[in-house]
Amino acid sequence: MIPRVKRPEVGALLTPNVIVTTTKDLVKFAGVSSDFNLIHYDHDYATSRGFDRVIVHGFFKAAMLSEFVLAQAPEGSWIRKLSATYRGVDSVGDPIALHGRCIVVEPDADLASFELWTENPSATITTRCEATLCWGGK
Amino acid sequence: MIAPKMKVVAGSTWREDPVTVSAADLVRWAGATEDFTEFHFDKEAAIARGFQGPVVNGPWKARAAKAALLARIGHQSAHVRRMTFEYRKADVVGVALAFEFTIASVTESDADGSDLEVTVRVLDPADVVTTVGTIYVHLEPQCDSDDLPLDRVRSAVSLGTPHGPFSYRVEHADIERYQRLSGRPEDRIDNIMPAAFFGSLDPVERRDLELDDFLLDLSIPKIGGGNAFNQVEYERPILAGELISVTTTYTEVYEKKGQGSRLLFRVRENVFTDESGTQVGTARNGHVLAYQLASAGAR
Known about the structure:
The structure holds 2 protein chains of 2 kinds.
Chain A: E1 17-20, H1 23-33, H2 43-48, H3 58-72, E2 78-86, E3 95-106, E4 111-119, E5 125-134
Antiparallel strand pairs in A: 1-3, 2-5, 3-4, 4-5
Chain B: E1 13-15, E2 19-20, H1 23-33, H2 43-48, H3 58-73, E3 78-87, E4 96-109, E5 113-123, E6 129-139, H4 150-156, E7 163-169, H5 172-181, E8 222-234, E9 243-257, E10 261-273, E11 279-292, H6 294-298
Antiparallel strand pairs in B: 1-4, 2-4, 3-6, 4-5, 5-6, 7-9, 8-11, 9-10, 10-11
């Protein structure tokens, strides 16, 4: 398990992680998120729309990035603000690399912001996120 | 732009070339529908029931009629809203069936397109009517240019007007599943709603609020779409077990021209309140649909 940092520092990179999704993961996510768009689990539909395979939900990538930053944030952190912009699709089975960097720290407020992003196997950024975390009971 | 293959006029009648149903057709149908009633594919079982051979499934005939009608109309945005069928006589495998259609009525509206009521008769080689039915078809208005119907979308979503509230319970089991799926280790599973879970509380994502579905049926070919961006800000952590009310307001509808396509953006804002009526979060979501330009499609 990647250790938490006690005090984030501006510019510090998070320890990257890589996730490979399966169709089963996407079906489970469809169920828990109530997003049943066929493009996330019906191969024939996805190929008819011009994709090689079914594609990962945008919200799923945002959720993975949220967990990625929370796992390395100070104990007791929660995400107050989250924004995600989807730049490209990720296909099921392709490795999704998770990256992040601390961009703002407000020590008095026990608050920090991170830019987060996913990269596909070609190192192209497919999702950009920004998350603001609070801890210390704030 | 793909034009209708036929002029849609009340009173028009036509008969399609006969279709011979094979045993393979019925076996495929049985597999697809999980209707494994034996007299549809087992000759001995069919004969034991007094038929001359395996009996064509009634819904197979209805589906075939629907497919033949839509192919004949040839209108890209045609879709069936409802159909009813009555099966009067069994048809057996290997027999050529004729499908005869009559447009009983056409109701037209400039804004919403046309509604057709089409009667169907299925006839066996002796011209005996074995099946009758009615298919109700809706045709979206034809677009004569690349223009997207922005005003119609703005009107459909009631730009600036809140919709709801919609109430959703943040279930413990869902929270735990969501956290695990997103990569959280088992020893860190907790009862705080994950930040991205707000998408699961969105009435549009959940299809509880569907105001602009007609966009899926526009005659302009749709070539893609999905979430463009999602943003959320919480006032406090939302916990498993809470009942959250959501109101949704569409704030922007606009288009951008892409390479060979037009992109239609719809932006909506959600306000989340808890059971005491206190606001606990706000979200902003942008969704994009990509349509092929007619000029690009013609190249």
